Description:
Elements: H1 10-13, E1 33-34, E2 37-45, E3 49-56, E4 61-68, H2 76-90, E5 100-106, E6 109-115, E7 119-121, H3 122-128, H4 133-152, E8 155-156, E9 165-168, E10 174-175, E11 182-183, H5 186-189, H6 219-222, H7 229-245, H8 255-263, H9 279-288, H10 299-320, H11 342-352, H12 368-375
Antiparallel strand pairs: 1-2, 2-3, 3-4, 4-6, 5-6, 7-9, 8-11, 9-10
Helix pairs in contact: 4-7, 4-10, 7-9, 9-10
Amino acid sequence: MPGQETRRSPAEVTVGVAGQRQHSGSPFEPGQTIDNFEIVRVLGRGGMGEVFLARDTKLGRRAALKVVRPEHLGSDRSIADFLNEARLTAKFSHPNIITIHAVGEHRGFPYVALEYLDGHDLKERLAEGQLGYQQALRIALAITSALSEAHRHGVLHLDLKPANVFLPIDGRVRVMDFGLAKTIKPSEAAGSGEPAAAASDTDPAGATEAWGTPNYTAPEQWMRRPTSAATDIWALGVMLFELCTHRVPYRQASVMEKGRAICSNGPAPGVSEQANVPAELSDLIARCLEKEPGKRPPADEVRDGLEDLLEERRERLSIEESPFRGLLPYTQRHAGMFFGRGSELAAFVERIRLHPVLAVVGGAGVGKTSFVRAGV
């Protein structure tokens, strides 16, 4: 579900100090109407907030209403952070970034209305089992496209992880939860970022309070050094590694041990040969996991590399397929009978949102015409 909660450092969640605003309870309950949103049910609760399924009574559509829990509304900073996340997310109009419908306030409680997504997040999907290579590439490409768009607007996500990537049933991957995001000059995000000093093998500063999630936290975050677009690229590299191998590169038991390993001078673990990953992808992941931020590629370059790999995969599969001859193609009136091409349809719909013209290629008789007429 959209709007899942982000783990923050203890300093960011200490609110409700004496003399500041206090709230005894949330007015957001099933059956109530907040402005033009009728609360249906709770979708989820986290440490910082709650997400409700709501019905927009004016537009007749579903929405996900995200609100801050009462105990975290004691300070002006908490409200400012909450609204800042909404403003940053509203900067984008991209098919792979969650959309904000509205922002409002009810009885002192600010809320954000997000598009409602039916499906599950990438963390849940990975828990079910390893993804196929082509599916992993498509998901990775969608995440990277979203990251490229964010960096183009001068926004760093800074908490990229599978739990913040949603896989809706419409097949269009969404990146969400910009709760830890910050802005920089777009020109600074064009590259991989200003090189930071080389990581040391000393204990990471404040390892138990690291921003984000330890598995996806970059060395410069552990060391409390300046973040940049390259910080997001590190997290992307970890996710690419995980999509290909079904595990993260650093698997130390304790947070402190993990932080020391990530901040060490040694190179990040490589993708195993058993993962059956092409050398080009393995090299791309290794570049994303460079310890020095200045050596990591920008999001645009990673996106282009993934697009090339996906295109090569499609071309190879089209050559290997054996066509069934003598069958007439389906037409639009056969759409109800068309099945078995769910992943291809999802990929096509996702790409056509970015490119107005797409070529459907394949060997003779594999179903190109049926795919376009009955499937799409």
